Amino acid sequence: MTNVLVVGGAGYIGSHMVAILLKQGFRVTVFDNLSRGHKDACEGAHFIQGNLLDFAAISGCLSAQSFDIVFHFAALAYVGESVKHPEQYYQNNVVGSVNLLAAMRKHKLNRLVFSSTCATYGEAKHLPIRETDPQVPVNPYGFSKFVVEHMLSDYAKAYGFQSISLRYFNSAGCDPLGALGERHEPETHLIPLVLREALRTKLGGHSKDTALQIFGDDYDTPDGSCQRDYVHVNDLCDAHLLAAQQLLTNDDGQAKYYNLANAVAYSVFDVVSACRRLTGQPIEYRIEPRRSGDPAVLIGDAQQAIKELGWKPHRTQLDDMISSAWNYLSKGA
Ligand code: UDP
Question: Got the DSSP string for 215-248?
Fold first, then answer.
């Protein structure tokens, strides 16, 4: 039985991955500091509460069992917060990854699937963005992931350390059965915030203070708001599984990088309109200044993942992503 370690497996994307791995028959251990995640989101996996900033903790975890591969989801991932608190981002995302890689090398484990991001590209020169396009991150979050990507390519050259970095565009949606969802506190992502506003309105708790904020309506885009390329969380997880299969069967000692995207742009106003239609709630908002660190448009080309990993995104409609997130949120209300 393949034995996997999921670092950050109690978070939003990590917990969806754990559920899929368990369903596929993998033996799964989760290592998570629970700073943003939830232990009950990874039921069925062996759970270790630990912090990547504590080298002895991650090294101890790797010495206790022999793992075949590691998935690394543990990171802080809020653009706005990273601009305000860059130190936290470099500590958690960069130093944490340095410790993980050092512990993996110490225990002779050299296969890693790494959660990277389209935020490593910054403002795109042309769209959709390809893997070979320049990476010029415009916020500390993107930069922290960019640094780790570089480490992985240096580790491949020097040590034959094998990795696949998956550059997610905007992850959205939930497990269709409604058992898992996005439970960030604080929540800063657009779709859950729009749906929380819909729920407050539905439950009669809406007030001017709770109105949704839209960060900027003066971007150089058709409706003035930022555009993003949304990908269903389960499609992202499918790509991780394919990446793991490739790493487990190939011994090429390389670091590889793939976009995970649908090449379709939705603006912030498109998301609000779709949420209004799907929830039947009016959903009010107020326009606020631009949020620091936000690129105007992020749309990705995932042809390389489709060709080389055999990735087939199945849940490409924004409506499906929003409906599954609404299903989860309204269930818990
Ligand atoms: N956004 C917004 N209001 C919010 C949260 C996000 O207008 O309350 C905008 C944000 O400025 C960006 C887009 O929605 O243009 C997507 O932001 P999100 O935080 O969901 O993902 P990101 O692209 O930062 O990873």
Answer: E-S-SSSTTSS-EE-EEEHHHHHHHHHHHHHHHH
